[in-house]
Amino acid sequence: MIVIDSTSPVPPFEQLRGQLARQIQDHTLAVGTRLPTIRRLAADLGLAINTVGRAYRELEEAGLIETRGAAGSFVSAAGEKSRERARRAAAEYAAVIASVGIDLDEAVHIVQAALTNATPTTSPPP
What we know:
By secondary structure, this protein is mostly helical.
């Protein structure tokens, strides 16, 4: 279930994108699940079509959904590939941290700072 909080400082497209991404990542929405059309979801949530379209585009750019033309948008298997890529990057990071002698608290702080400053458009290609 998607809930948009109109009083939130978080823009509606970001609320929608975040909620769908979480549902995909926690497998509430399974790979292959057909998502509602942009028009239908916009009507159901009381949002502008462009707002839902932007959320879908960002999810597609992140590899979490794929659009198959007139067939619609579906939860992508690429999301699992993205998770595996993140696991590999984390293992590489852990190896670097161990080799240079940085303690766990500082290593976590470094990751938190990097995540805070990261934007989806600056991530490297798979």
